[in-house]
Amino acid sequence: MDTPLSTIAVVGLGTMGTGIAEVLALAGREVIGIDISEAAARQAVTSLEASTARAVARGRITEQERAAALARFRTSDTLRAAAGAELVIEVVPETYEIKQQVFRELDAIVSPAAILATGTNALSVTRLAAESQRPERVLGLHFFNPAPAMKLVEVVSSVLTAPPAVEAVTQLARELGKEPVAVGDRPGFVADGLLFGYLNQAAAMYEANYASREDIDAAMKLGCGLPMGPLALLDLIGIDTARTVLEAMYAASHDRLHAPAPVLGQLSEAGLTGRKAGRGFYTYEAPGSQTVVPDALTPSPEAAAGEGRPVGSVGVAGSGTMASGIAEVFAKAGYTVVLAARSQEKADVAKGRIAKSLERSVSKGRLTAEARDETLGRITAAGSLDAFAEVDLAVEAVAEDLEIKQQLFATLDKVCRPGAVLATTTSSLPVIAVARATARPEDVIGMHFFNPAPAMKLVEVVRTVLTADDVHATVRAVCAKIRKHPVDCGDRAGFIVNALLFPYLNNAIKMVEEHYASLDDIDAAMKLGGGYPMGPFELLDVVGLDVSLAIEKVLHREFRDPGLAPAPLLEHLVAAGCLGRKTGRGFREYARR
């Protein structure tokens, strides 16, 4: 099976097939595009001409290179055109019946040495290979959309695949400028296997009316640095496609996290499949358009507004990084800030941390020396919560321990004036349990900032069943003044971000436990295939494995879903003291400073 793979057939000239054909033609391969639809073939040629013209205009290729690539691409409406191909890549509709028919016909057409690759991301490569007369030459070659831009290619082996076939397509992927990742045969492989579980949970969250579609998407973009929110991404992928992938994943795993959320089936059956239909979770200007237009579910700015309480002074309780970051944010926005810690010394250290942060901003040209001095002048360091007597808003940022927070709120209840808003920054504890430590739970709300607070734009605004409307309105108005994006959510474990992020991280750990893929391959797959700023294991080591385990336990305890049980490997590493970067070892080892 030692072949140069210089002539390649692509069966199915939809968006993905056309993109793959473009990549191959630009890399010097002779490409035969095959589709039973003459219109699809014509569209593929037009698309290739247009995309290569854009590449010339942007200086990425020369006009001569464009002409050569176009000359290397020809189309046909019959599989017989693949007779001379050394590799055939099928990207036909995602059903066993259609794909198996293609493989059966190719068996009688291509040479015995040719490799047959399926572009599936949901179906069993092994099952498809079993239909071939030579299953050792069948494998998966999963490109990501748009194929010309996305670097990841998953090379999928079944138990029947011959190693030389894997080596040949892996080398091809590298020559195409892609990053090949070797994976085994299971629905979703690595990237989609992790991505679609997360998307499914987001759909279920929306269906439960826990948060609006806009807030879910904003939370994941701003809180995790993702290029798109999950519901907008489902619309882009196609809701029917996502449902198909999830059905295949659930059939293999029987994990409830993979059972398609009912709303996906309802939208699919109604023909509301996303951008391609002009409507899915969002409504679009036209079918195929990426422009979102207002609809009946679009929130009205007037409806969101409400009469809040005046806030001129803010108390921040705590002396850690989060507390000092929050105090800095409020002071920059013009608020008078009292930063209170358990001792004057700790409060002074926290204010000193703010001074250093402001100085860095000055040195980078982001802040003037005058603004630095004014900001620092608005902050008073105090060694007791008694200093909060006249603040309008008190924000706690102490240890993530319910008993500690309850004690602190009992003190705030005595110290703060009537009408002051009391906010907790908890990321995992029930806000109502904190609120009940006071005699005024209606004044208590969650304001979950993200670390580092000065840089991160998101604040999850968490209402309990007792939070007063004007308290909610106050916090949203404050968020606008400190230039943060508030998202509303109810008082349940994980809120939006952690409830969607940590099951995804947990599933990545399970992949490693099952020896399905390596840490490096999983991290590469999610960065290159999903557009994530960090791979799951990079992120776990940064967050801290002990923190991650604590959040996983809270989610499992709240939702009682077996799929949310913390992966044993995570528990073992925490028990061994391997907590991530802060200890020098987590999933990876780090040089000690």
Key traits:
8-stranded mixed β-sheet, alpha/beta, 593 residues, 3HC_DH_C, oxidoreductase, 45% helix, oxidoreductase activity, 3-hydroxybutyryl-CoA dehydrogenase
What is this entry, summarized?
Residues 7-185, 314-491 form the 3-hydroxyacyl-CoA dehydrogenase NAD binding domain. The protein has 593 residues and is an alpha/beta fold.
What is the element layout, followed by pairings?
Blueprint: E1 7-11, H1 15-26, E2 30-34, H2 38-57, H3 63-71, E3 73-76, E4 87-90, H4 96-107, E5 115-118, H5 125-130, E6 138-143, E7 152-157, H6 163-175, E8 179-184, H7 191-207, H8 213-224, H9 230-237, H10 239-253, H11 262-269, E9 283-284, E10 292-293, H12 301-304, E11 313-317, H13 321-332, E12 336-340, H14 344-363, H15 369-377, E13 379-382, E14 393-396, H16 402-415, E15 421-424, H17 431-435, E16 444-449, E17 458-463, H18 469-481, E18 485-490, H19 497-513, H20 519-530, H21 536-543, H22 545-559, H23 568-575
Parallel strand pairs: 1-2, 1-4, 2-3, 4-5, 5-6, 7-8, 11-12, 11-14, 12-13, 14-15, 15-16, 17-18
Antiparallel strand pairs: 6-7, 9-10, 16-17
Helix pairs in contact: 1-2, 7-9, 7-10, 7-19, 7-20, 10-11, 13-14, 14-15, 19-22
Strand content: 5-15%
Mean pLDDT rating: 95
Distance between the termini: 50 Å
| Count of DSSP-assigned helices | 23
Percent of residues in helical segments? 40-55%
The helix-and-strand class reads alpha/beta
Got a strand count? 18
